[in-house]
Amino acid sequence: MRVRILAVPYDSGLRDARMGRGPGHLLERGLATRLRDRGHEIAVETLEVADAPLPEIRCAFDVNRRLAVVTREAAESGALPLVIAGNCGTAAGTVAGLNQAGVGVVWLDAHGDFNTPETTVTGFLDGMALATVTGRCWTGMASHIPGFHPIPLEHVVLVGARDFDPAEQAALSRSGLGVVPPDAVRARGMAAALEPHVAALPARVRRLYVHLDLDVLDPAEARVNQFAAPGGLTVAQVAEAFGVIGRHRPIAAGALTAYDPAHDPDDRALNAAFRLLLELVDRAGDSLA
Ligand SMILES: [Mn+2]
Prior knowledge:
17% strand, binds manganese (II) ion, alpha/beta, Arginase, Chain A, 11 helices, single chain, 8-stranded parallel sheet
């Protein structure tokens, strides 16, 4: 299938810093070639914002405004938008670029990303990424992303999360958002744990955005960044999740985020990222066929 790789080499407002190095590293180590070798037609675009250092929040939302435009162009041309990004906050731009009515989200992450400015204890904007996408915070900034509308909570499934801040966990529990904890995956297998949630998405959800924060993986499998938390998923379980998702709905866009090569001296996380991106594109192709 035709794939447009959208590389966003930023982390917390800084280009090529920390997890912002992940996208460039994936490309330098041959992501596009691997996808082409699998028979896919690949174009790559790296997103840039203004040269001058920007305030962090401004940078994140400027990136999203641009990302929404290029995601829309890719999708309208019939290509799969595949975002590789330092931060999870890019999800807001990606879903905005999909013709948003009828879009659902499957979010795989060690963390809930469900903090708001009122609950965060780290001050890390990325910990608010899913809360932003679902319209719980940063609504003014998000309203300037072309095409952005908050995704209803019942359109979202959170998979593999196990590291929450206390107030975040309370908000998540109250929200009623569908959650597949890693314990459930270990106990019952990915298909049995995930399938009921995807099957229960409202009929108006016609396409899915699949968001893979690579730190959903267990650190014993691959350590991907400084936020790694034990008790995570295996590469095989995540790969299986993509199959489950694609059997229920077309996968309209995907993202891989939060890979910091500085924590990956032996390339285990790199190879996990390659395997999962190839799997995601293959399953997206099946789901759109
Ligand atoms: Mn995340």
